[in-house]
Amino acid sequence: MTTVLIADDQPMQRFGFRMLLESQDDMTVVGEASNGTEAIRLVDRHHPDVVLMDIRMPGLDGIEATRRIIATGARTRVLIVTTFDLDEYAYDGLRAGASGFLVKDAQPEELLAGIRAVAGGDAVVAPSLTRRLLDAYIHHLPPSPTVDGAPRPEDPRLAPLTEREREILTVIGQGWSNTEIADRLHLAESTVKTHVGRILAKTGTRDRVQAVILAYDTQLVTPA
Predict the structure, then answer these.
(1) What's the pLDDT tens digit per position in 139-148?
(2) CB 99 within 8 A of CB 135
(3) CB 59 within 8 A of CB 36
(4) Helix residue ranges per DSSP H, the chain
(5) Are 24 and 68 spatial neighbours (Cβ–Cβ below 8 Å)?
(6) Across-strand partners of 80?
(7) pTM of the predicted model, to two decimals?
(8) Lower Cβ count inside 10 Å, N or C end of the chain?
């Protein structure tokens, strides 16, 4: 049974989400929050598998709530629910530790599949959409520091990676799916999955979305 907390300041939106989720045999709603502060409190109380998190809420917004929830080291994963074309904060939500995002007008089947994927440890943002999002909001990245005009030192998170793992992290950041990586690098897809798992473990990234952000942060990938 996947436990879900709904965080949204719109009562009708919460009601709609609850009705949909509780129609599923494998999901249950453990609570509702109307702002980020309530969400944090209810996560601490119920330890849900997934928080369905709105971004724009009164008081503490969904981004800061996500950041604080992830910072506790809890097993709870956050799925941002937003409107991509309008919401300039979606990128910040991913950087705060969310495992992905969906738009509010997604089909019910997409939302349910997204929650199941996040609960299972996967990311729910399609690789091409991840790349589009990061390229659109890449200006949120801090400037690359230099020392006496020299390039900055390599990020220590990359040090444990083999050359092959570094190559795969780079193409993950470029938006390649596992199937595309297997086809283009002439690897079995199971081998690619093994490499991806090792990359996540070695770099301390929670999921594929965070791996993409790492690739941008460390400049393995730069915006087109």
Answers:
(1) 555 555 555 5
(2) no
(3) yes
(4) 11-21, 36-46, 62-71, 90-95, 108-119, 127-136, 163-173, 178-185, 189-203, 208-217
(5) no
(6) 53, 101
(7) 0.71
(8) C
